[in-house]
Amino acid sequence: MERMDEWLAVARSDVAHRQPDPLVEQRLLDRMRERRALPSVAAAQPPRVRPAPHRDRPRFWFGVPTALASAALAGVALLAWVFSLPVETIEPRLAATPFFAVVSADAIAAERSPIVVESTLPRVTLADYGLPVDPARVDEAVGAELLLSRAGVVLAVRFKE
Amino acid sequence: MSNARGFLAFDPNRPADGRHDARELSERDLSDLGRARAGDEQAFAVLYRRHSPAVFRYAWLLTGSESAAADAVQEAFIGLLEASDGFDPARGSLAAYLCGIARFRAYRAVDRRQQTVEDIDGIEREGELPPLPLDALERSRALDRLYGAIRRLPPAFREVLILVELQEMPYAEAAAIAGIEIGTVRSRLSRAKARLASMLSERETSG
Fold this sequence. Notes:
The complex is a heterodimer.
Chain A: H1 2-15, H2 22-44, H3 63-83, E1 100-101, H4 105-110, E2 115-122, H5 125-128, E3 141-148, E4 154-160
Chain B: H1 22-37, H2 41-63, H3 66-82, H4 94-109, H5 112-117, H6 136-152, H7 155-166, H8 171-178, H9 182-206
Helix pairs in contact in B: 1-2, 2-3, 2-4, 3-4, 4-8, 7-8, 7-9, 8-9
């Protein structure tokens, strides 16, 4: 049996160098992104605006609306200039959101020893929970805390920056 | 592992020499798994790189095919990510869970008929193995013969030999993956080695 152990030891060191093709990891990451993108893209779609039906309009119909729109635009421009609003204000800064349940409340209550781990998630995940996503920062990650079961199941999530 | 309450507790007695004990590895696995399931790609990459080599080697040794082994690895990780209720740390480590899925996939890829005609209850004849050649080319050929002989073993013997001897898994984990008792792992391992020696010595004699 000593010879057998010698053969097996050599085989052990030989197989230790074998690795899966890097494409396998890439395919898995692509699949993760696809699964992530499907609901998020749907959620991020702006609602379709149906064109208003054409109606006969009175003469000089544009006078009052044009004046109101001009006044509103001037007001917005003035406010933007005064407060120098940056584009990022489309997505308000998140100090920390409350925890969003990912599974049922019963499932969370039934978990005896959950843990909280720090993580970063794709920013589009915010849309899954009804939070605004700044299109200019969509490629950035967002900080998150995950409440995990001891089986590694995500019970709840909250976002923070 | 059986102590679920203490499973995630910080262990102040863990080794300080940089090695990770099983509990610490389990905690890291759980944390990375949760983050990966939530969409954290970096956590998934860490988890994948930690476990995929062992899963790949196991599947490759079972099937003899790199593409079948790669498919088994891919399916194991897809199962891990997408079946959130599949992995139960109380029943075994993440490595054992992944190898279990890969084993199922790998067996689908090999000829099932070969698995049913083998008799694993026969008496093993001890063979006289030659020493491994020193020449690199000859040694490589000898290893190919060894792998071929391992793949001709009955599946019940083959998997315990691979898990314990080539993957260096503890008996308990090998038992969990193969779905047998620890005592059965020991007896099958002993007989697998005897049969392997017999096959290789026959080959040496005839070749």
